[in-house]
Amino acid sequence: MTNLDPIQSALREAQLDGWLFYDHHHRDPLAYRILGLDENAHVTRRWFYFIPASGEPRKLVHRIETGRLDSLPGSKTEYSSWQELEAELKTLLTGATTIAMQYSPRNAIMYLGLVDAGTVEVLHELGKTIVSSADLVSRFEAVLTEAQIDSHFEAQRRLDEILAAGFERIGNLARSGGPNGGPNGGTDEFSMVQWLAERIEQAGMVTAHGPNVSCGPNSADSHYEPTLANSRPIRSGDFLLIDIWAKLAKDPKACWYDITWTGVVDREPTEHENLIFHTVRNARDAAIQTVQEAFAANQPLQGWQPDDAARRVIRASGFADFFTHRTGHNIATELHGAGAHLDNFETHDERLILPHTCFSVEPGLYFPGSFGIRSEVNMITYPGRAVVTGRTQTELLRL
Question: CATH says 5-141 is which class?
Fold first, then answer.
């Protein structure tokens, strides 16, 4: 990274004196991505890189690893002992008081809590006020380019087709006897995971740790992963959940697409299944509406607010105890990206949901030993509007 203008402009807008990057042993992967450093470099000693709101950046590196920041602009100082490190760190930060770091007060947003408490203590002793870089990280990690947004929509088009074909296959196998035999025919979870993964690869995409095909009571485990050893048969009469995600294979900067749909195999849903699905669907739509109304009005929106909107619907329905995870997560080049999550449950996420970012909306209700329903869509925000990027499930599927 050589163009510091956007970072320094953001620092001035936020009325911060600077942004201090710090790492050893690759404790802070965000720093490497934001600064454009080699993520595979051999790093065994502490380094600091300070970008002031105005002026030239400054580096502090160990004499054993003097070249670790040479790809970045700015002056360089070296140290060896811990006493020299602290003295030079004081000099490095001369004139700066309020400094952003990958720090989260009370570790409220642990995805950003990458600076160790001891280093923060040293900086406090130097008279520095350390604030969270959370919104800065979102700005430089989560905001998507036009090409990345296009990659998301292309992944959406391909994956929606694969998922529809997968559901059709499950229904056909259940009714025809299927390759696994048995009186009820059908297939099994792991076989469908393999089938879907093969279709993802054939479509020029990649996935990771998935997809997830959950049948019957396994759908009540929101992070269930079928294996050859534990795979459950899928037969007529079963309840089914598929969580599937992928991105374009040939583009390292491509944006993921991540969705979850549910349905019943060769039967009609029960009244209770419909009730739970409609509750989840309404919670999802309440979160979507909260995002869309805020962006239409050009009002700031923090990650916890859409989560609250979804959770209110589920709480009013009497099922709050069965909604056991956040409403959504940021999506970018990483499936769980570094931008704002839709969360006031696992964390109180005060990060702003920025224009040109992508995230999931996926409330769920899970009843151990019975079944679980999650309805997941993705959204992309723009100045003045926010859109759902793929198909939206409105009723349980009949396979």
Answer: alpha beta
